[in-house]
Amino acid sequence: MRFLMGAVVATALLAMAPGAAQADSVKIILDNPNLIHFYPNGQDSSMPSYYTSKNYFPQTLEQSIRQFTATSLQRDGIAAQVDDVVVTNGKALVTLSSSDSTALKQAAGYVKMLPAFMDSAHAGLGWTGAQKCKGATGCWDPSPGVSPWAFYLPLGLPMVNQKAVMLLNYPPSDALCSADYLSNFTMARWTQVLSRVGIVDPLLYETIVDVHPIAAPGSGQSTYIANTTQYFSSATPPNYDQALLDLLVYPAGRTGATTVPLQVAGSDALKVWATMIGSSTTPRPGTVGTLIRTGKPAIPWVATNHPDVTTYQRCPGDAKAAKAEAPATPAATATSTAAYTDDQLVQDEVLDLQAACVLQTLAASPGTSPEAALAQCKTIWCAENNGTCRVEDVCIQARLDYDFTSEGHCNCEEAAKAFCKANVNQACPSKTAVTSCKPFNDAAGCSKSTNSYATCKSLTVNTK
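The structure corresponding to this sequence follows.
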């Protein structure tokens, strides 16, 4: 076996035990001169110390490859483990193993997907774009926030068994501090929405392509991040986001004329998607379509709110002034063209639940028309008390997502369920004042809201 310079090369070496009838390991070679920068680690001179100093942040390239690969396998639902990672002169040999022949066969899909992800035509395009931005005056981190910008690829996510792919804007810095791409408010909330519609394996719907591979503070940075778009996305290939998207929507082992469904989430991602599909107008949340491509599988897609859309949402009559910069842009209504409105709680909740339902339908029945899936989902995920709408679930999710700074926010499932029962499943029972969830929070024993994810602030500094 040998390493080849300047490219990523994969080899599946099926290690045979004496007298064994089948292989029990898969070996993958990653060979790229910039591999040290593709995986977050303390040996990377370009990674700010703000991140490398956090507890649990991988300090070596070996640790990072092992950690993120193991997490991908777990989220893919593959019962295999990373036995060994050996890095020699910046090149890595990764060994996966399993006693389960079916799991090992699935793990073999990483032989194609992982090296392709890390090659110069995918991760390499992102790294090159980041370097060009750093070399342009005023492009990279022009208005530093609490945490500095850092290059961050969508690692540790499903790579072979994903049922959908998400196109988003950029990863929040919390996800880099914890070295876990899904450890942030955005994805914690979206996982809850996916589960609400009955998806039992939500992680398989959370393979992400961020159009800007830059970890940055979750608010106050969108305008600056948008100014980097030219370095990662363009109407003329090759470009980072389109290349990585093409790889992940049609993973190893998939067959058929369509890819897994694509969720395009939030105004920033939707603008980039419009460029990708050659549209002069930006798709609105709540719309669907199919991108037909010559010589390539068609991509069924659904345009959605950003998963954070409900962060500051309230009900009509009790809305407060919009934040200076909200972390998402909800769909404009027929009577409002404001970039951000914070009294559309139920309307945006319904849009999100319908979108999750569409993704579930398309994943379960490849080839189904996105339009047909949406029409069906609209009869289920709606707020009318007509006997078919799942009004209790809409109400519960809405009160869990109600502006987290307000006493109207329900801190747990039990409290939200009790609130909805007491108010006949009306998420917004009053049109003139905030309806408090505090009595229900107290009765359910969840007087304080708890995070299911780590934040940069909550992670201690490694003193070793």
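Residues 1-120 form one domain.
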